[in-house]
Each structure stands twice: as structure tokens, then as C-alpha cells.
Amino acid sequence: MRSLHISAISIAAAALLQAAPALAQDTPLWSDTGEVTEESWTDADGHRFVDIQLVLQEGNRYAVAASSGQIDTMLTIFAPHSETVLAANDDGPDGTDSLVYFTASETGPYRLRVASYDAEQTGSYELSISSVAPPAPPEPFTGRSETVTWTVHEGVLANDAGEDSVAEFLIHLEAGQDVSIRGESEAFDVVLSLLDADDRFGDPVASDDDGAGGTNALLTFTAAESGDYVIRLGTYEGSGAGPYTISVRK
């Protein structure tokens, strides 16, 4: 019987990855080559895969890339000691190679899975990870007063660098205050999230996909305590770009 083999990087490489806060933007940290073979494990959908385990540092933002001239790569990032998928990509900005960006929410061993999209394909690949600058802090939410209660902001979501594009805005809520947030676009399927500003890369306190009808989003939230919150507008499965309107009523 085959046993599942997870490659682990050396202690020296792990130390380098954990030292990323001192590194510049888009700094290469680690790379290695591997091979998906007929003996590789397969997932529930029949994709052959190889798992690699890397120790990453809490709060660091990483770009992980898988490239191959022989297979159509699929890349998946799992949370430490978990089957929870943090990020996944099939075809990044360049053909059949894969690219994901994500921020480590805790220090620990993250599992990176390189798979072949075609169940019959086997071949070699290169996997690399780089330190990238964190996203810009959210800007204070401002806009025109469309009615007595709604404040409206119009913008354009761009996705031209292979990274899931989002727009983020900072709002302040008092304890017990209600807020309604609406995201609309004719260009993409809108996803809205509201996050505690002190836990910007954690789980949202509220989120919605199609609550405003069609592919538009609407969420409501009552603040349990006073504080700052981040409104995040993105696209369903990180796909799409174009003009959007975001409206806030509180």
C-alpha cells in the first residue's frame, strides 16, 4: 500500500520563510522542482497530486507559483494541520501555469498541493514562493449622498496582475449601530465582506454573495461593540473586473 508522502523543507529554508518581514517586495524565498507521476496520489476528482509542506510566518503575504511545460498545473494551499482550503488556482495569468496570493493567518506548516488538471497527464513542475508587499490599507469610505440614508461610492475593480482584486474601505461603527452595505456591478459577480479592522485577514463578521438580487450583494450587520471595520468588495471565485458601485447606510 502506498503511503502519502509530504515533502518538508529544511530548517534553514523554514527560517528564511519566517524572516520575510525584513524582505523587500516580491522577494523570492524558495523554489524547488518535482514531478507528478503515475504513482502519485489522486484526489476525489481523479487529479494526480504532490503535497509539499512549508513553514510560513503569521501576517506575511506570499505569492505561490507552479509552472510546467508538461502538465496543466493546479495549485491549492491548505491551512496548517487542516483540510481547509485557503487559496486555489488553475490557470494563472500565463496559460496553464498556476499563481495564488494569500496572507498567512498563523505561523505553522502550510500544505501546498501541485496537481495535474488532466488525470492522464504526468510530468515535472517547478514550485516557487515569494514574499510580496501587503495590500494597501483600506481607505476611509466616502461618497456622494444619494438619498437621506445611503452613501454611494463608484469605482473600478482591476485584475491584471494575476492577483484576486478587491476594494477595501474603512468605516467606524458604534456599539449597537446597524449598517447595510450594498455592492453592485454589471461587469462581475459581487461578493461583500465586513471584517474587524484589527483582524483584517481573519474571518469576516458578515458576508454576502447574491443578497441584492442577481449577482449583486447586500449584507446587514449590528456592531456588538464600537470600533473600526473594513468593507471588502471582491468577485466570486476571484474572477472578473470592471466598474462597481458600493453603497452604505448606517
Offer a quick outline of the entry.
The protein has one helix spanning 11-18, and strands at residues 6-8, 27-36, 41-42, 48-56, 61-67, 73-78, 85-89, 98-103, 108-116, 123-132, 139-140, 144-145, 150-157, 167-173, 178-184, 190-196, 206-208, 217-222, 227-235, 242-249. It is mostly beta strands. It folds into 2 domains: 6-132, Sandwich (Jelly Rolls); 139-249, Jelly Rolls, CATH 2.60.120.
Characterise the protein shown here.
This protein has one helix spanning 11-18, and strands spanning 6-8, 27-36, 41-42, 48-56, 61-67, 73-78, 85-89, 98-103, 108-116, 123-132, 139-140, 144-145, 150-157, 167-173, 178-184, 190-196, 206-208, 217-222, 227-235, 242-249. With 250 residues, the chain is mainly beta. The N and C termini lie far apart (60 Å). The chain has 2 domains: 6-132, Jelly Rolls (Sandwich), CATH 2.60.120.380; 139-249, Jelly Rolls (Sandwich), CATH 2.60.120.
Q: Number of domains in the coordinates? A: 2
Approximately how much helix is present in the residues? under 10%
Q: What's the order of the H and E elements?
A: EHEEEEEEEEEEEEEEEEEEE
Q: Note the overall shape.
A: elongated
Task: Kindly report the average pLDDT value.
Answer: 83
Main sheet makeup: 6 strands, mixed
In the predicted model, the low-confidence regions spanning at least 5 consecutive residues are: 1-25
Task: Please tally the β strands and state the result.
Answer: 20
CATH topology term of the largest domain: Jelly Rolls
Backbone structural class: mainly beta
First-to-last CA distance = 60 Å
CATH class wording of the largest domain: Mainly Beta
Give me the CATH architecture of the largest domain, please.
Sandwich
Rg, Cα atoms, Å: 20 Å
Strand content: over 45%
Number of helical stretches of at least 4 residues: 1
Signal peptide: 1-24
Organism: Stakelama tenebrarum
Protein name: Peptidase
Keywords: Signal
